[in-house]
Amino acid sequence: MRHTKSHTANRRSHHALVSTGLTACANCKNFKKRHTVCSSCGYYRGMKVLDLVKKMEKKQKKEKAAQAKS
């Protein structure tokens, strides 16, 4: 059966996009997505989860090796 434009619009009124919730990190006060590890300091709920210094050193070492190879 055919639906009127108003009936279709009423049904689609709940299809709007919602922005993601950002909160301030408790450790470094930078904004981060909720329920995720902070990308700037590596803390989640007061505990250090990621060692970002070690991660950056590994990335730099990999880039240096790639430049030396080429």
Structure description:
This protein has 70 residues and is an alpha+beta fold. The protein has one domain. 37% of the residues lie in helices and 14% in strands. The protein is built from two helices and four strands. The chain has helices spanning 5-12, 52-69, and strands at 22-24, 31-33, 43-44, 47-48. It has a two-stranded antiparallel ribbon with strand order 1-2. A two-stranded antiparallel sheet has the order 3-4. The chain is elongated and about 65 Å long.
In short:
The chain has helices spanning 5-12, 52-69; strands at residues 22-24, 31-33, 43-44, 47-48. It is of the alpha+beta class. A two-stranded antiparallel ribbon has the order 1-2. A two-stranded antiparallel sheet has the order 3-4.
Q: Secondary-structure map with pairings?
A:
Elements: H1 5-12, E1 22-24, E2 31-33, E3 43-44, E4 47-48, H2 52-69
How much helix, percentage-wise, in residues? 25-40%
Beta-strand level of the residues, as a percent range? Answer: 5-15%
Structural class: alpha+beta
Integer count of domains: 1
Largest sheet: 2 strands, antiparallel
Tally of contiguous helical segments: 2
Number of strands: 4
Distance between the termini: 66 Å
Strands ordered across the widest β-sheet: 1-2
Uncertain runs are none
Overall mean confidence score, pLDDT: 91
Q: What's the order of the H and E elements?
A: HEEEEH
Approximate shape: elongated
